[in-house]
Amino acid sequence: MAKPALPDYNFQQATLDFLSKGPKQLFINNEWVAAQSGQTFETRNPATGEVLAEVSLAGEADVDAAVAAAAAAFPGWRDTIAAERGALLFKLADLIDQHADALAELETLDNGKPIRVARRGDLPYVTKHLRYQAGWADKIEGSTVPVTFPNQFVYTRREPLGVVGAIIPWNFPLLMAIWKLGPALAAGNTIILKPAEQTPLTALYLADLIVEAGFPPGVVNILTGPGLPTGAAMAAHHGIAKLAFTGSTAVGAKIMEAAATSNLKPVSLELGGKSPNVIFADADLNAAVRGAQWAVFSTAGQECVAGTRLFVERAVYDQVLDGLKQNVEKMVVDHGFAEKVHVGPLITDEQLSRVMSYIDEGKQGGAEIITGGERLGNGHANGNFLTPAVFSYEDDSLKMVQEEIFGPVAAVTAFDDWDELIERANATMYGLAAGVWTKDVARAHHYAHAIQAGTVWINGYGMIDPAAPFGGYKMSGFGREMGKEAINLYTQVKTVWVNTSD
Ligand code: NAP
Ligand code: MG
Q: How many angstroms separate the most distant Cα atoms in the chain?
């Protein structure tokens, strides 16, 4: 393949070296191997449409090979002193810090997000999460159990499951990889990671750091390829003991089905969202409008927690809508390496068309477009750029209001009273996150309790922390990542009975 065309930017030498190193192979047993499938695919820069790298496509035989490697590595890794497992994860975090600039550049090239965000957002989060989970490695404890029988000493152990399969999306490629790798490895599992086909680069870069950190062969394996066949082969594999998935609700359902009809592997699903964000008239309106703006438009709206449905108390509706319009019109849409950029491109042209179809449906269905929703031309026509769109709407049955768009589209509506608000806010199939802006402490807590969502932000939006459990209600999935809950996801409980009578 010819050298990839890169934007005009002062790239790290490590980034250039990585990109110039030929077609990317599969990472199995700490080695780079050619795919047995013989197939490859291309990953592109969403800002320009240009090919960045040719990448191996893992087929069923490749999944078999990775499972064999991970299964062979499991007993040794499980029995490694827990503190030593943690130490390797800390070492990996240090190496990621050392390579943070190159990793951020690759993330922006592959995913499109502003480089400032990749560098100051994604990368620091990656190492924070990894270090937090590394710290759990030697703190996974069982308990002693006071049973009803005499002369029985009963205790529990939290044991790893075996080979974990992890399938992740493209919106936070390295962060999603670490969310899975961190707790799975800390708990003593081995892992096969499949990054999204749109954004495989940072996971592949990570593989070299895994070797350098000193992880034994087979503990981490990275398979690139699309959902079909790679992801599906993992979900259905009898040698995979647990499947951790982040992605859409539709694919999550397929993963569950494949798990059910193969070996009943437990699954954890972090799925989509259509999160309500509420502004009451008594809120600090400047903060609320800014918060609402970033709640939906960061990462060009391609966030599972995006606060896409904004409910505003009617007394301040016009004021909030006007403030939002003014703020949003100042947002700069450009490629991720531009000097000043707030909103990068969407991930693919298919995604752009999908988002446009929701915008058309909104317009035709009677929602009023307040600003944005247009493609960029003029030097941006080959990229997937869309100006942030704000709609004012009344009809909750619009698809634009019910379905996850995963693009820069805000749907703003007025509400009059509490019961109406809670009913409407809860009336989607999703339940990932929610926000509320008010100075009334009691009301804020009532909202937090009434809303069906795994995370609620009061007078803020979008904060995620390694210590704070995260996951969905309803069709946004189940299982909680982060915090101690993440360790529970990657372990199973064994109860041991010891007869102590003579
Ligand atoms: P997606 O289409 O569901 O894909 C997610 C992953 O599943 C990708 O690696 C994909 O592979 C793979 N996949 C697709 N079909 C598969 C199948 N039949 N069997 C096994 N694996 C399969 O989602 P996406 O478009 O990449 O990401 C956007 C979605 O992720 C949104 O719904 C968003 O809300 C959700 N998300 C949720 C969270 C959360 O924590 N709750 C976080 C981020 C994103 P390929 O893409 O490589 O083909
Ligand atoms: Mg790409």
A: 87
What is the pLDDT at residue 263? 98
Residue 378 has pLDDT above 80, yes or no: no
Residue type, 404: E
CA distance to 10, 46, 110, 203, 327, per residue, from 50 (Å): 18, 8, 10, 20, 32
Point out the residues that are catalytic.
270, 304
β-bridge pairing 144-145 and 51-57? unpaired
Could you tell me if the CB of 237 is within 6 A of ligand 1? no
Note the ligand closest to the C-alpha atom of 275: 1
254 within 8 A of 412, measured Cβ to Cβ = no
What tokens were used for 158?
């939290």
Mean pLDDT of the region 378-402: 94
Express each pLDDT in 131-159 by its tens digit: 999 999 999 999 999 999 999 999 999 99
Q: What is the pLDDT of residue 380?
A: 87
Distance CA 3, CA 386 (A): 28
The number of the ligand 1 atom at minimal distance from the alpha carbon of 195 is: 9
How is residue 267 written in tokens? Answer: 């699954």
The ligand 1 atom at the shortest distance from the C-alpha of residue 476 is 41
Report CA(246)–ligand 1 centroid distance (Å): 6
Evaluated on CA atoms 66, 72, 73, 79, the torsion sign reads: positive
